[in-house]
Amino acid sequence: MNRHLALSTPWSILYQSVSLYRANFGLFFRLALYSNGWFLASNLAWFTALAILLASPFALLIFLAHVSGGQGWLVLAIAVVFVIAMFGLSIFTSAKGLLRQALIGQIAYHTLIGQPEPVQVIFRRMRPRMWQFWLVEAAINATLACVGGITGKFEGGWILLGIALQIFVLAQRFLADFIIAVESCNAGPALRRSQEQCNSLLLPISGMLAIVWLFIVPLYLLAFLPAIAVWQLEWQTPETALFTRDSVVHLIQAIGISIVLCTLFQTLTIPFWQSIKASLYQTLRASHPSV
To answer: Of the candidates 82, 86, 106, 104, which has an alpha carbon nearest to the alpha carbon of residue 94?
Structure first.
């Protein structure tokens, strides 16, 4: 691929993605909202548990002591089982949500290639690989966490290098979940296929991701602003007693507002990311049909 094509491809992909997003906004928004409903269910469960723990810790301890008959080991066992159940719920709802995110990408791709299919037909074809979407997401997040653990020690101008390295790693794996759906493969082969296909345009793809994140990150910072503001104003001042009832209530309210805003912004951005994946995959297949 020549240099001019490599430079123009990201912009054409973004333009195509925006057009696709606008043309199918209603459908994509509904599917993204349904997808986020699964993530929100898990978040609300954790939020409720956190609210109870912060607002009434002593009442919770009294209740557990009553249920366990005063047996300390039983209280610990109940707590462990509860935490395991909550993590299990988080994993299950994440898999459900990721499956429906990938569904948006498949609808976008079939629209691009002029072979539209009913939503339910595409969903039934993808559903058997639900856990593969979770596995590939877990693998990508684990890789980024390892890279972040290394680059997190950077200082000064090296911080930008660390961010660039993370974007570079993500760019290689950007199409993995999309490939699971369109090529009906598992998580491992999908990660390898994503690297094979994205390597030919790795720098332009990395630049494209960086540009999109420059527009999206401020939205998420805005979403977390209520929680950050309450934390700074009421929990980081020596004049305020820790765990006072008002400060706990205000923090819980702020976290709730942040969760709602974050869910809204995520509902708006998920279809755009999936549209980018569909456009990128089509472009790579057209320029490298043998890959």
So the answer is: 86
